[in-house]
Amino acid sequence: MKNVLTGLFSLLILHAPVHVWASPTWGVTGHRVVGLVAQNHLKKKAKRKISTVLQCNSLAEVSNWMDDVKSDTAYNHTHDWHWVTILAGETYETSKKNPKGDIIMKIEELTATLKAGGLSAAKEEEALKFLVHLVGDLHQPLHVGDRDNQGGNQVKVTWFGQNSNLHRVWDSDMIEGKQLSYSDLAGFLDEPSREQVKQWQQLSTREWAAVSQSHFPKIYDFPENGKLGYRYSYDHFGTVQTCLMQAGIHLAGLLNEIYG
Ligand SMILES: [Zn+2]
Q: Cα(29) to centroid of ligand 1, in Å?
C-alpha cells in the first residue's frame, strides 16, 4: 500500500504545474496555542462579534477545523491553501503562482472578504475558520518553503530514533515532545511588550512570510545523519515559541482590524 501511495504521489508531483506537497500543519496543539494567544489579544468589540460568528466557539476550538475537513471531498479545493513555495532569490510577487491558490493569496483574500462583509452567517463562519488556521500555518516556517522539497516533507530525518521528516519535526514533533497542553504552552510563551505587539501587527502577510523564510539557515543546520532529538529541540524550541506567539499576535491584529 505504501508503495502504491508513494507511486501515486510521484505521479502527482510529475504532473503538477507547480510544487505540490501534501503537508500536515502545525500539529493540533500549535494551532490551539495560536488561537488562544489571539483570543487574549482581541479588542472587546471584536471578541464579541467573533463569538457570535463562531457560535460561541473560541478561536482555539476552531483552529484545526481546516485540517479536519481535508477528509471531506467538498473541501478538496482548499488543499493547497495551507502553504506556498517562494524559491530562494524570488519574492512572492515574482514567484510562479499556484493556480489552486496559496496561503498568502488566501489570507489576503479572506481578510478582504471578511472586511467587506455581507456574507451569510455560514459563509462568514467558514471564512473566519479558514483565516484562523491559515495565519497559524503561515508562521510555521516550513509552510513558506524556499526550495523544491515540499516544505521539508521530503527531508527525511529521525526524531528520537523514529522516522520523521523536517516538516513534521516543526509541525508537531518538537511541540508534542514537551508534553504540554495547549493552554500550558500558551502560558509559557514570553508576552511581548505593547510596543512589540504594535510593531508586529503592522507587518503585512507577505512580510510575515519573509520572516518565516528568514529562519531557514538555522532550521536546515543539522547533522548529515539526520538524527534529531534533544539537541535540535534545545536549539530550536525558542524559535517555535516565538513563531507561535507572533502568529497569535498577527491573527489578533487582523481580527481587530476586521471586527474592531
Ligand atoms: Zn494547515
A: 12
